[in-house]
Structures are given as C-alpha cells and as structure tokens.
Amino acid sequence: MPVTVLLVDDEPLVRAGLRAVLEAQPDIEVAGEAADGAAVIPLVRKLRPDVVAMDVRMPLLDGIEATRALLRTVPDPPKILVVTTFENDEYVYEALRAGADGFLLKRARPAEIVHAVRLIAEGESLLFPASVRQLAAEYGEGGGNRAARAELERARLTEREGEVLRLMARGLSNAEIAARLVVGTETVKSHVSAVLAKLGARDRTQAVITAYESGFVAPG
C-alpha cells in the first residue's frame, strides 16, 4: 500500500511542487490538499492519510495549533511533517513540542522531501537529528524544564532503556541501535516501545525532546 499524504499550505505553488515531487514516486500518493490548518481535522477524518505535510505558518490556524487540535481530537492520528521556510525557527520547535513528528525545509531537494515522508511514515528513526538537537539547544530551556524532568523521573527508565533513548536522540534507527548494542532488532523495538510508553510520548521525536528538555541528554 502506498504512503498517503495530505498537503496543507496556504501557497498553491508550494502544494503543487510537493504534489509533483511526491506523486512521481510509486509508493507515495497525495490524498488531498488544504490551504489552511483549519481544514485539517475534517480532511483527516475523511481521507485518513498516513502523513500530513503541514506549513507551520498559515493565516487562520497555524501548523502548531492545527497539530495540537489534530492530536487532541482524532483517534489514531496520522504522522505530522511540518514544512517550513526557516530551519532555526522557534515556531518549528513549538510544532515539534506540540506533537509533530519532524520538519522539512521548503527549499529541500526532491530526494530529501521523499526521504522525509518515507522516514516519518516508518517511524523508526529521527528525521534530521542534528537540526532537532540544534533547536533543542536554542529553545529547550537548557535542560531546565521542570515538567520534562519530572516526567523522566516518573518514567523510571532502566539502564538499557536509557541507553536506547540516548541513541534515539543521536538519530540512530532500530537496526543501527541493535548493531551498536549487539542485540536483535526486535529487542530494540521492545525497548523503544517501553521508552515511549513510560514517557507517555507519541513517538521518537517527543521522547527525544523530553530527553533534551529534562537534561537527560545534552543537546550540545
């Protein structure tokens, strides 16, 4: 089955460009388009896309609030890929904190766009880990977020789960973590699932942000 994508951007040219790039791939299908975040929830309910590629800045409802609303109201929500003009942007970090799974620059090359959609859909690796680390270093309160610290303390991660979380923060995939720890991939998947469950995290991105904001992992 192809990965289905909903495009959400107030610029028609951006949507047209993304559609052209994605639909050139045999394993990706554009399910629909919207010009504002306010249209996301009804379209997601109707189309059930795997991924929503969403502009972070839109006139009526921006990508941050649209992400929060989507995750709050839609059961089994799709993955959310924030599409932005600027990489080092506090809006991008806020979107990730709100629950977005990763972000993509509008000037990205076609191959990068396709890779981002596939990686987000698979959910087994962190998209652009160095950029997430840079954003966390600038906007993540330097490890002094009390809520994140309390959340990590409540999680009571085992030593091995802590190792896995640190490797997740470096952007390693399940297979790469398995090779690093000399264990099976299924074992790593179990550890990742345990980390996410204990942290109450929707995905790897949210777990890694908690790790940075709590000071468990240094973003520098």
TrEMBL record:
Name of the protein this chain belongs to: Response regulator transcription factor
Extract the coiled-coil ranges from the record: none
The segment(s) forming the Response regulatory domain are 4-121
- PANTHER family in the record, alphabetically? TRANSCRIPTIONAL REGULATORY PROTEIN NARL-RELATED, TWO-COMPONENT RESPONSE REGULATOR
Q: What is the lineage of its organism?
A: Bacteria, Bacillati, Actinomycetota, Actinomycetes, Kitasatosporales
Which InterPro entries does the UniProt record give?
A: CheY-like_superfamily (IPR011006), NreC/VraR/RcsB-like_REC (IPR058245), Sig_transdc_resp-reg_C-effctor (IPR016032), Sig_transdc_resp-reg_receiver (IPR001789), Tscrpt_reg_LuxR_C (IPR000792), WalR-like (IPR039420)
Q: Which UniProt key words apply to this protein?
A: DNA-binding, Phosphoprotein, Transcription, Transcription regulation
Query: What positions does the domain HTH luxR-type occupy?
Result: 150-215
Q: Which Pfam family, any one, appears in the UniProt record?
A: GerE
- Sites where 4-aspartylphosphate occurs are at D55
